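Q: What does the assembled structure look like for these inputs?
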Amino acid sequence: MKLLSWNINSIRSRLSHIEKLIVEESPDILCFQETKVENDKFPKKFFCKLGYKFIHLNGIKSYNGVCIITKQKSEIDKIVNWCDLNDGRHISIKINKLNIHNFYIPAGGDEPNPKNNKKFEHKLNFLDELINWSKQNKNNKTILCGDFNIAPNENDVWSHKQLINTVSHTPIEIKKLNELLNTGPWIDLIKEKVFLPSNLFTWWSYRSPDYKKNNRGRRLDHFWCSLDLESKVKTVRILQHTRDWKKPSDHVPVLINLK
DNA sequence: ATGGCAAATTGAATTTGA
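A:
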């Protein structure tokens, strides 16, 4: 079974890319973040025509928004309104006793100080809630994926030294993400199963005219699994080539193959 | 280390991303 996670940066603007990727890879399960569309305006027919008939949505107007779409029969599990906000940052499903959670963790704004930046405070609170949830959860037959907006390891950013005080790579959020990882315990599949040269990222800013030139990217997108599933994950891949397509998302897809 | 771009909303300028 093939699972895909991709921050698509507006699903309606990216349908041609999605179709291209489906033709290339035909994943069984599609997890998207930043769909940026309300549920009643979601392009359901597009996915039905491609054979994906089970569509589970948590979208809001303009921003955020996540969904999980499957070929085989699946059921929605739940939508959690983390930090008491109904802001399209989570959805989970059940498929063949497998639990899949798709997250869009808050980016956190610019200033890495929760006292004068409400967005960063929100990000840290979100992580605290995830840690508590993970402690209480059974954490078996479970996959967590999505845009976590944190690049936890030194090699997950183009310059550890220069980004140490930049939101997404600050010690406090990395500490919380690692705490979450340990409470599962969850397996960071990209870290454990992909040979990572020092620069292997899932996001590059639009602001660089040529993202490849300086390769100033970050590994913000993740696939984690519960311990019992680790041996069943056969391959983990970051599909960097989509970043070269015309009018791309600033994130690229991550794909895993689960036996 | 910021912000050169991009998308959505509203109606040319603003907000958001990271």
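The mean pLDDT of chain A is 96.
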